Amino acid sequence: MTKSWLERWRTGRIGWHEERGNRSLRRHWRGSGRRVLVPMCGKSVDLLWLAGEGNSVTGVELSEIAVNDFFEENQLHFRQTDGDRRYEAIDIPVSIVCGDYFEFDEKGFDAHYDRGALVALPAGLRGAYAAHTSALLVPDREQLVITLEYDQDVADGPPFSVAGDEVESYWPGLVQVDAYDDIENCPPKFRDAGLEKMLEVVWKSS
Question: Is there a contact between 179 and 197 (Cβ–Cβ < 8 Å)?
């Protein structure tokens, strides 16, 4: 998993990246003044949007290429701390910790945004991811989790299809608030395989 992820960034095979950010985030996020955790963030511009809403944002990303791309493409000055693992933007409250998310142990986050982490992981790792994430969050937290649902007999991930009952088993406090067909924006390999429908499903704290 780790080797494959780094190789995708090295070769530019990042079809899941959204250049303009995620519309479901903008539609469903509520709240400011929060410490937001964004696991496996890549170079997502959603970090900028969350900061613009008045939040302090911490992303975690394995690929150093992705982290450097984020700051370079958004023309952000930054400093490196914590043994150069933490990249902190100078002018906005955004930082990215470069490393394995399962080794990230900073706690006390009161918000969690996941657009690409849960769906990036195979079934055997998703439970461990959810448990690790929950351990980093305070009990009374805001969560927005975006998943995909599609016919895995036609195509398979990553990003993977994650059923609703699986999400509910990880975070019983989440409710589904939206779902729409996003086949036009899915990575080309899915359409090439013949997939005709891919739902983007939005889960939110109740």
Answer: no
The pLDDT of residue 1 = 64
| SS3 at position 67 | helix
Pairing of strands 56-61, 35-39: parallel
Strand, coil or helix: 59: strand
Predicted confidence (pLDDT) at residue 19 exceeds the cutoff of 80? no
Name which of 12-21, 47-56, 86-95, 169-178 the model is least confident about: 12-21
Contacting residues for 181 by C-beta, under 8 A, at least 6 apart: 197, 198, 199, 200
Phi, psi of 91 (to 5 degrees): -105, -10
Q: What is the CATH number of domain 2-205?
A: 3.40.50.150
* Domain ranges across the chain: 2-205
pLDDT above 80 (res 72): yes
The structure tokens 């998703």 sit at: 126
Going by C-alpha positions, the residue among 68, 33, 72, 25 that lies closest to residue 49 is: 25
pTM reported for the whole predicted model: 0.94
- DSSP state for residue 128 in the 8-state scheme: H
